[in-house]
Design brief:
By secondary structure, chain A is of the alpha+beta class. The first copy, chain A, folds into three domains: 260 residues, BirA Bifunctional Protein, domain 2 (2-Layer Sandwich); 100 residues, Rossmann fold, CATH 3.40.50.800; 68 residues, C-terminal domain of ProRS (Translation Initiation Factor IF3, 2-Layer Sandwich). Chain A is 37% helix and 29% strand. Chain A contains 14 helices and 23 strands. In chain A, the strands form six sheets. Chain A has a seven-stranded mixed beta sheet, sandwiched between helices. In chain A, strands 16-15-17-18-19 form a five-stranded mixed beta sheet, sandwiched between helices. A four-stranded mixed beta sheet of chain A has the order 20-21-23-22. In chain A, a hairpin with a 6-residue loop joins strand 1 and strand 2. The mean pLDDT of chain A is 97. Strand 5 of chain A pairs antiparallel with strand 5 of chain B, so a sheet runs across the interface.
Amino acid sequence: MSLKITPRSEDFPRWYQDVVQSGQLAENSPVRGCMVIKPHGYALWENVQAALDRRFKETGHENAYFPLFIPKSFLDREAEHVEGFAPELAIVTHGGGKELEEPLVVRPTSETIIGHTYSKWVQSHRDLPILINQWANVVRWELRPRLFLRTSEFLWQEGHTVHANEAEAEAETLQMLDIYAEIARDWLAIPVRTGLKSKLETFPGALRTYCIEALMQDGKALQMGTSHNLGQNFAKAFDIQFQDVDGARKLAWTTSWGVSTRLIGGIVMAHGDDKGIVLPPRVAPVQVVLVPIFRKDEEKIAVLAEANRIIDELKERGIRAKLDDREQLKPGPKFFEWEKKGVPLRLELGPRDLADRKVVAVRRDTGEKEALTFDGLADSMVERLDAIQAGLLQRAEESMAARTNEASSMEEFEALLKEPGGFVLAHWDGTEETELAIKEKTKATIRVLDDEVPGTCVLTGKPATRRAYFARSY
Amino acid sequence: MSLKITPRSEDFPRWYQDVVQSGQLAENSPVRGCMVIKPHGYALWENVQAALDRRFKETGHENAYFPLFIPKSFLDREAEHVEGFAPELAIVTHGGGKELEEPLVVRPTSETIIGHTYSKWVQSHRDLPILINQWANVVRWELRPRLFLRTSEFLWQEGHTVHANEAEAEAETLQMLDIYAEIARDWLAIPVRTGLKSKLETFPGALRTYCIEALMQDGKALQMGTSHNLGQNFAKAFDIQFQDVDGARKLAWTTSWGVSTRLIGGIVMAHGDDKGIVLPPRVAPVQVVLVPIFRKDEEKIAVLAEANRIIDELKERGIRAKLDDREQLKPGPKFFEWEKKGVPLRLELGPRDLADRKVVAVRRDTGEKEALTFDGLADSMVERLDAIQAGLLQRAEESMAARTNEASSMEEFEALLKEPGGFVLAHWDGTEETELAIKEKTKATIRVLDDEVPGTCVLTGKPATRRAYFARSY
């Protein structure tokens, strides 16, 4: 709680750890790589979930739930898939006091078990499309865990859909990518770059992987969500076939898409400052906190009465408002605590304010202080919350624009990566070899491909058909 | 889908399987004991969750999330706890391609890992109470699985609270028991008997276990939720201590309480009939379904236009209404499908109805049909949904009253268990020996203890200080 926060400029990874912990979002658990998501962090996740879930349902998806355990043999059916996930698996060998005949994998993702299930559900073109999402925990063994960013267990949603043809599968893949970008921008106040991954960075077993990539304050990219057109690979592996209108039996096309609690890490690293977390109002568990100030008992009665009235008024307006009436803490420590937790607006109400029928409002993002009249206070709050939301997005957009630059030589490339950091747009000859060589040389990887524009590869000088956005990343 | 439903009177367990499957709630998965919860079943669970979550939050609880994995050694710290759960554990022995130094248990419940965490969070009386709930999946290896009722993996919530003294812990335990009983009655339309468990049926490691018990249509009891006063047992095992107001260091008191997807099984067995599931309107994913009827194209246009208008009107009123405009199905099969799914009200709208400005409404619970005018239709729907909700509860209450009888001899006890079934109230001498002997003889167990009323034990004839409710159970 009284943890000192390392400045960002001094050590960004330590700053991250400090603000996540002092902001009471999460902490490490005794199980290596698994985290405890504390109430403040979980409430933030619930708000992000609600925003996503609403959009999933609006676009025709339903939620369902599939088993945590997957027979090991299921993974083996898709060669790239098992190769990609084998090193990260947690394996159950004993159940009910006995050794299992076949080991079970704790799901790292559910394409295989869901593919198996869909093969029974899909018989005719009339059964298509299947549009299902699952909210679940998954496990990918992590040797260098970091709260929210890389944890052995994490919470996520995974959408799994089945379509009659490639065009529909591709449209679904892109629709979900758009929804992710929209939620990132409109709810998390994080602008993202969207696009296709290179083959090297494609999801194991997918035909094409699209993703949303954001820039953190240290200039590194964070992959915040992926949407995969799985082609017919999993349909083949799990025999998802249907009788089409023309009577022929055909292999189906599937997609999958997911975002996880990693988004919380993104919010922290995109907006936080040296005082702690800064939460975008639309997802903040508490949007406005009121700290009452008084000395004498009669002041306390009057101040708390007015404070409660204000809180009720704000709640009625749909604002998530909270009165911090804890007796054992003085106002100062309360201010610091809510600052660390990232609450967008703080109200301070003392005896003198009562007389003036005013309250002091302090913005978390800018530190700006103003005295606001009781009259129209809910309106003032809504305006300021909107301004904070817009301000965070604008700042992040400006930062991303300033940190997206084009390089036509490797010298330029490396110089830009160092300063200002962020995305370096460069021509690439399209080979895995060059991609790996650039990674080796610069630690930067292709985050997304750019549209096709002919040119010369920044590393090899060979002809290139397209550019790519490179960055160092989480 | 076209599965024939076995009548309840013929074979209740098969009827249950048939209606769960034909009602599209869930199905078995290739992993023994794990189920796939289908969209209709999951949407039902989401509504139950929402009702519970609201009450948890209203009573001051926050959600958080703790790890799926628990070090095996944690369970060993509470002797009764490990003894109770050891036979049901799923054990992870390998992670990230290596054998683990210490095996991890997939949580069967989280008292131990949460107890460990709370020992760090609790230092002073100022940190108390801690009021936290977790929505999660848990695993208890099940050799004879039944969808929703007993599955190796199930979804649930588990509340875990810490208090400064016994009185507060007991008050919390009873408060949550009351909330469970309230949700069962007011949302699921299931009356329950609440009370204390005998020592034999107490949660491993708890001081006292309270539960809610409902009667299913076959006269068997279903334990639908439990609330445990854990005393200081887990505080001792995990060293949850605090400095009290008087400066002394004291052991804390903890509670835990949970309900699971088993509730879905309870809804099915409490209200279903030989045609399928019957859902209480307050938790039904779809409350009103409208099936349009037409032959010619011009009829279709007119009917669908009016149908859409009606659906919009009902939705605006807050009713979960759905238009079934699937082209490939005739009205008859649609009626059957929604009947099996348990949708409370069906509307039928054809060309003649249009002319009369009326719609035919069919109640799922009674089969009653009536023609309702377009004017005031939303009001009519709300009234009927309320009537169905109240009717289901009343029927279940009458059934429970008729199946709760007192026995003063074992002959009477056994006769009552056979006919009418349900709860048999009888004096019991309070010994585990007698409890087990009665179970051996009748297959009935103590579901909850009754208040203290002196009498003579129904089996041994020894003096008894209290009665108990016995029943065969799930």
